[in-house]
Amino acid sequence: MPGVSLSLDTEDLAQRYDRISADRQFRGGQEMLRELALNPGETVLDIGCGTGMLAEYAASLVGPAGSVVGIDPLPLRIEIAKKRVAPNLTFKVGNAYDLGEVAAESFDVVYMNAVFHWLPEKSAPLRAIRRALKPGGRFGLTTVTAERAGSWLHVIRQRVLARDPYNKYPEAQAMQNYRVSPGELEQMLLENGFAIAKLETRVSVRNASAHAAWTPESALDFAEASSFGNFLGHLPDELRAQAREDIKRELESLRARRTSDPAARESTRRPSRIIAVATRP
Length: 281
Known about the structure:
This protein is α/β, with parallel strands linked by helices. The chain has a single domain, classed as Rossmann fold (3-Layer(aba) Sandwich). The protein contains eleven helices and seven strands.
């Protein structure tokens, strides 16, 4: 993927992701699975399964007569996922661009949770997913919408990285992802042979305790782990630590201002992600 490296992940980042993804990714994924309405006995493919938390939950929904396969391109995260042991649950290294070994019409459900915005080219994965689905099978996804304003964390990141000496490393100026708008996603799904059952934008799923526990440190931890090291990964080690501290300092200042400004807090409740369910006719 241009601008995004799959080689920057570390054991520490993978473990951190496993700890902190329960708030956003897992809760958002559970919401998607409710829309998909998994049934006992169904076969499910989780593309971009990370450390396997949502796949494990899906396996509990389809029961012993069903099965769930989770794939992810990051081997360290698959190693953590494999510790989730269940007779109907399998994990392996793989990605959305390499579904050639998946038999045609072999899954009742395929889903991608917080993955679609990392795919630079989206039609090939959509065609492969359609091929993997049984007729009448369902495809679900959650993804960040292109219409979402940049988060304060990423605005501050860009501001810090534009300064000397960080600006000597232009490849670090953007943590690239490939967001789409609801309209663009609708067009992609239709062009690649899907019928749309649901497509809407929603506010990110975070519980009250998570909002209360937000700190600059926790925000940085999430950004580093969920981007598999790409948040500051292209900077040399010594500058990476310095940039992290500079970003943290500005986040602390922002947090102090937002604490005294209810309107600023409310602005974070705008719809920021898409949830979609489509079917293979």
